[in-house]
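Exercise: predict the fold of this chain.
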Amino acid sequence: MNLDIVESFAQMVREKGVDKDVLAGIIEEIFGLLVRKKYGEEAKYDVVVNMDKGDIEIFLEREIVEEVTDPNLQISIGEVNKRGNDEGLEVGDDYVETLSLASFGRRLITLAKQSLNQKIREIEKDVVYNEYKDLLGEIVVGDIYQTRKNDILVNHNKNELILPRNEQIPYERYKKGETIRAIVKEVKKGNSGPAIIISRSDNMFLRRLFEIEIPEIYDGIIEIKAIARKPGERAKVAVESHDDRIDAVGACVGMKGVRIHAIVRELNNENIDVINYSEDPLIFIQKALAPAKLKKIELDEDAKKAVVTADSDQVSLIVGRNGVNINLAMRLTGYEIEILREEKPFEEYEEDIELIDLKEELGEDIYELLINNRYDTALEVLRAGSEKLQEIEGLDEKKSNEIIELIKSQFEEEE
């Protein structure tokens, strides 16, 4: 058993990188427990473990006496002489003997095996916990081995990693056997072992992908100053170059977009805007809201608020689909952004729209009313305004305003 125990622990040293002295200490503790179980808590003993030779020796020390009153702590001189007293020991001396495992009996040996197995499991849990604690915020690559309703289980170096639903990229499909990349987001201790949470939706995952694909970021020449992200849909990344000769945005995008496309593909075609960072909040907000054209920005730096004025045809660009663009810009810059719409003068519209082309949007009844009152184009309706339209029988203030807004929206779409 000695050799088997040491070999199993030596294997842990090789495979898991556990400290040999720590393992030797555990073996000493387990076999010390064995001695105390048989010879009492006051027993004098020593356990010597040689991890290199695969050897365990247990020594018991007892006092030599004429008549034994406590066999756990004493041995008679007669018994010592019977065993061959080569060293000429006398009453009062200490007698040290080597104990064999067999002398402990099957019950105590079974107890030792159980204790060792428990210790091994605890060590393995600690090793895994410490290994992934050191990998927090780093990318790991594993294989999906089980897909469940609320999470995905990933095998990484024979360890189980968990990708919860809220850490997945929305609408991304995961199949058993596929290779997947993610960052280690959290490591928690549990009764059955450490729970290792990984993420593909965290901003740190995007940051690490930039470091992998863009050497200038990894080398520190270009710095990522801020990230705002709606996973699977859109992200904004603000970068700054510490070398005047290197264009930060150009380096991140790469020749013909090859660098950024590699990241976009990894993120399930997430649209990524890379912008130049600026310490001037006016410039930074303007860049964050690109490609929309802004007319004016008013800042309240103490309250972290910005009021943006733009032509009405730019508002949809500022807001973005489902408000994603402006929300990401606010998170990226740290400013709450309010939009003031400035109506575009009618004369600035390059082309008019024939009213017949808007028949479907207006509806048959409204179209007929406008045509019968000599309104043939969209601009003619806009120039008339809501008050003039209300003079038409059947059009009240609410309906007139709806017609005006509908026609304005058509011009914005044309833009």
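Check your answer against the key: The first strand starts at residue 44 and ends at 50.
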